[in-house]
């Protein structure tokens, strides 16, 4: 029967181009057409007959009676919403007469939907399935909850919306569409949260827990029907929740910079518990598979990044709700939420930086290897493993991979700048200083990557200047990052830079600086040296071939040390010499015993003559008879 789909599709199609008044007018026309199909519409100038109660037999014979009841309930709901929308802009609010009119419309729609649900409950006669009965009960509870919401009867409102929530949560597992999830997130959950706030229910209780407690007041028949669809909903309150499912199991405090803050909102507590669970899973996965490539390690960070983002969204929503209620910044609840916001944002950005560090490669990309960001196929990797000497990539490809590393470093530096803008970070001098030192660490890595690209392009002077700048950055951050307290080693990287990584980078930059200076010195020497006529690299032999000869002039041509790249040249060695000599040397085993070469030649001539005579005798024609027969 698809009751929920029928209602939601009509609402979406009408409200997409119009308002509630337009929706009400459309429903009136559809009601008339629906009455004409079973021939129960009042004719023009005809006598009015009171509308009879819809029975289960009528619904079983013709589903148009079901649509008739749904359209009637929807028209009363649209009428109430149009009146509420028209008075939403009034500064004085709705008057008592208008509110009572809205409540009466919603009450009528709820009664119509409840009667329909009772009729469909006679499944043996109406032909309705279990899901159809639950959808009708959920729709009736949805309209009843809206009526109680306008009457400001908060306890009854929570119970009605809890019934609708539990039914839609159970049905969402048996269907692939998002209709039920949209109703939960857009209509039911905000109404339950507001009604719970008005009923003085603490925010530390999550919405699934509130709905679960309120649903316990429902009748036993409805409970049994929900159990038949999905029994886990009655245990957890929400099938989409994993891990922590109640306020009792969620953390109640969050620690930020050795300061514990009480978590005021239940959604933040549940999200923070999910973050702790994802962190444990990440450490377990990376510790068990340490030989994973960088991209697979980075993919393991997806769960914790999603969990931290949910915590950030929940904190922002809680702050917006308090601001909507008129709570000032000096309120203790707002102060606690601001600290919580800083903590969860710091956690999210920290893991984002850790993911970038993993993608950069070993030692945060400081190693002079280009395999970290390579996108080679299986065949290319197997070929390189089979060969003794791996094939060196072209300078253009190496520079492209260095550019990818620079992009990762830029993203990390932007994330660090975002952390400094969080509330309370600038006032924390110790944290602010450490963030600046971490920024200098990644700036040094960025300068080193750009210097290597200049070195590949043979711009040795630019590479030297960039490496010197990187070394200056590490020397500035050396007193701060080198004194990092030894913590438990975690396989998952985050914003914390260990002292070992920093010392390794500092030592590496010292070596790269000496290498860059040597390259610049050699290039300057080659530029300033005047080439001599006899020392041309193209005319003279390489120096490696003249090591036994002392230069009489006292000058050595350093531009022609070896032949590079090596050329393929013939080199005389003993096996080749023997192969050539085989054609000109007569070995003893080729000469007969007791004879010489001349005798061997004479014997060969005699044997050749005998063979020729034999062939001539065989070729002579034989005598034959008259008709070709032999005699």
From TrEMBL:
User: What are the alphabetically sorted keywords of the record?
Assistant: Cytoplasm, Nucleus, Ribonucleoprotein, RNA-binding, Signal recognition particle
Asked whether the UniProt record includes Transmembrane among its keywords, one would answer no
A cellular component term from Gene Ontology for this protein is: signal recognition particle, endoplasmic reticulum targeting
InterPro entries found in the cross-reference section: SRP68 (IPR026258), SRP68-RBD (IPR034652), SRP68_N_sf (IPR038253)
Which region ranges are annotated with the description Disordered? 374-397, 524-546, 591-631
Question: Superkingdom of this entry's organism?
Answer: Eukaryota
Instruction: Indicate yes or no for the key word Nucleus.
Output: yes
A GO BP term here is: SRP-dependent cotranslational protein targeting to membrane
List localization entries.
Cytoplasm; Nucleus, Nucleolus
> GO MF terms on file?
7S RNA binding; endoplasmic reticulum signal peptide binding; signal recognition particle binding
Q: Which CDD domains match?
A: SRP68-RBD
Say which family it is in: Belongs to the SRP68 family.
Q: What does this protein do?
A: Component of the signal recognition particle (SRP) complex, a ribonucleoprotein complex that mediates the cotranslational targeting of secretory and membrane proteins to the endoplasmic reticulum (ER). The SRP complex interacts with the signal sequence in nascent secretory and membrane proteins and directs them to the membrane of the ER.
Quote the protein name from its UniProt record.
Answer: Signal recognition particle subunit SRP68
């Amino acid at each position: 029967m698809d009751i929920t789909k029928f209602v939601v599709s009509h609402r979406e199609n009408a409200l997409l181009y119009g308002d509630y008044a337009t929706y009400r007018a459309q429903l009136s026309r559809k009601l008339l057409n629906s009455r004409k199909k079973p021939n129960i519409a009042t004719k023009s100038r005809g006598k009015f007959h009171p509308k009879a109660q819809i029975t289960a037999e009528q619904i079983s014979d013709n589903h148009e009676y079901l649509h008739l009841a749904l359209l009637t309930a929807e028209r009363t709901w649209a009428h109430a919403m149009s009146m509420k929308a028209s008075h939403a802009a009034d500064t004085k609010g709705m008057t008592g007469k208008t509110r009572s009119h809205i409540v009466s419309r919603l009450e009528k729609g709820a009664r119509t939907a409840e009667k329909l649900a009772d009729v469909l409950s006679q499944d043996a006669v109406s032909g309705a399935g279990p899901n159809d009965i639950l959808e009708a009960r959920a729709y009736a509870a949805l309209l009843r909850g809206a009526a109680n919401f306008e009457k400001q009867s908060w306890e009854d409102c929570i119970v009605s919306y809890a019934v609708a929530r539990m039914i839609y949560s159970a049905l969402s597992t048996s269907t692939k569409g998002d209709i039920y999830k949209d109703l939960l997130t857009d209509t039911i959950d905000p109404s339950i949260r507001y009604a719970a706030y008005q009923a003085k229910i603490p925010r530390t209780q999550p919405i699934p827990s509130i709905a679960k407690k309120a649903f316990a007041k429902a009748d036993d028949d409805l409970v049994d029907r929900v159990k038949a669809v999905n029994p886990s909903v009655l245990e957890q309150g929400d099938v989409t929740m994993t891990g922590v499912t109640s306020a009792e199991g969620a953390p109640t405090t969050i620690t930020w910079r050795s300061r514990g803050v009480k978590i005021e909102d239940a959604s933040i507590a549940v999200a923070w518990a999910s973050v702790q669970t994802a962190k444990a899973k990440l450490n377990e996965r990376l510790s068990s598979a340490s030989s994973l490539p960088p991209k697979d390690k980075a993919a393991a960070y997806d769960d914790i990044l999603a969990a931290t983002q949910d915590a950030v969204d929940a904190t922002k929503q809680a702050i917006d709700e308090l601001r909507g209620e008129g709570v000032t910044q000096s309120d203790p609840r707002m102060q606690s939420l601001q600290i919580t916001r800083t903590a969860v944002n710091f956690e999210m950005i920290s893991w984002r930086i850790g993911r970038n560090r993993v993608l950069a490669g070993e030692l945060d990309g400081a190693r002079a290897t280009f395999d970290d960001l390579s996108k080679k196929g299986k065949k290319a990797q197997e070929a390189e493993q089979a060969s003794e000497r791996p094939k060196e990539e072209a300078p253009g490809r190496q520079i492209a991979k260095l550019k990818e590393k620079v992009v990762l470093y830029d993203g990390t530096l932007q994330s660090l700048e975002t952390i400094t803008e969080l509330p309370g970070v600038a006032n924390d001098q110790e944290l602010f200083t450490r963030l600046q030192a971490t920024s200098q660490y990644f700036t040094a890595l960025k300068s080193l990557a750009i210097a290597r690209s200049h070195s590949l392009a043979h711009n040795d002077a630019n590479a030297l200047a960039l490496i010197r700048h990187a070394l200056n950055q590490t020397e500035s951050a050396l007193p701060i990052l080198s004194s990092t307290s030894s913590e438990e080693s975690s396989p998952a990287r985050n914003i914390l830079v260990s002292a070992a990584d920093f010392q390794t980078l500092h030592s590496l930059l010292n070596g790269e600086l000496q290498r860059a200076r040597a390259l610049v010195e050699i290039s300057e020497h080659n530029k300033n040296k005047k080439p001599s006529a006899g020392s041309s690299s193209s005319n003279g032999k390489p120096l490696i071939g003249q090591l036994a000869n002392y230069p009489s002039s006292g000058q050595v041509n350093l531009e022609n040390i070896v032949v590079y790249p090596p050329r393929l040249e013939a080199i005389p060695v003993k096996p080749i010499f023997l192969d050539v000599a085989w054609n000109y040397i007569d070995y003893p085993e080729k000469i007969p015993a007791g004879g010489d070469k001349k005798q061997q030649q004479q014997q060969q001539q005699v044997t050749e003559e005998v063979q020729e005579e034999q062939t001539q005798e065989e070729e002579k024609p034989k005598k034959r008879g008259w008709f070709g027969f032999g005699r």
